Amino acid sequence: MYLKKKQEEYIKKMPRNIVKIRNNINKNNRFNQKYNNANNIIFAHVSEKEFAKILDFYQIKWEYEPKTFAVEFNSVGEPVQSFTPDFYLSDMELYIELTTLNQKLVTRKNRKIKRLKELYPDINIKLFYKKDYNSLLFKYLNR
Predict the structure, then answer these.
(1) Residues 91 and 48: beta-carbon distance below 8 Å
(2) pLDDT in tens, 51-81
(3) Which residues partner with 139 through β-bridges?
(4) How far apart are CA 105 and CA 79, in angstroms?
(5) Helix (H, G, I), strand (E, B) or coil at 87
(6) 3-class state of residue 136 by DSSP
(7) Rounded distance, CA 60 to CA 131, Å?
(8) Boundaries of every domain in the chain
(9) Distance CA 9, CA 42 (A)
(10) Cβ distance 125 to 85 under 8 Å?
């Protein structure tokens, strides 16, 4: 009970519109300079690069890993676990997380996304499972 109260107090002190640990400032995230070519970005996984190419093909504005959200806190309310969604589609105000790997990672991501939705109800996020990603890739490749 004490821990939950401390977490709630910590969250209340944060900005109302979006709670963020940090903006992920790196060479990949220069606003309005990177929407046109996924080939210039260093992605964590090849599936993320392919997804970015699909977004580019459909001329959808995106950012790669722009924000990190605290999802777990210690006993004094400090963040101890965070979550960084793969993409942010600014025109749709939607975060996208891809998971094309093993079930263990899917379960962990599901848990983090559930917690993110509890803490930040104004944040829209969609998890793309392997079957969703493959379906999208198939449609893109057959254009």
Answers:
(1) no
(2) 898 888 888 899 999 999 999 988 888 888 9
(3) none
(4) 21
(5) strand
(6) helix
(7) 21
(8) 2-141
(9) 37
(10) yes
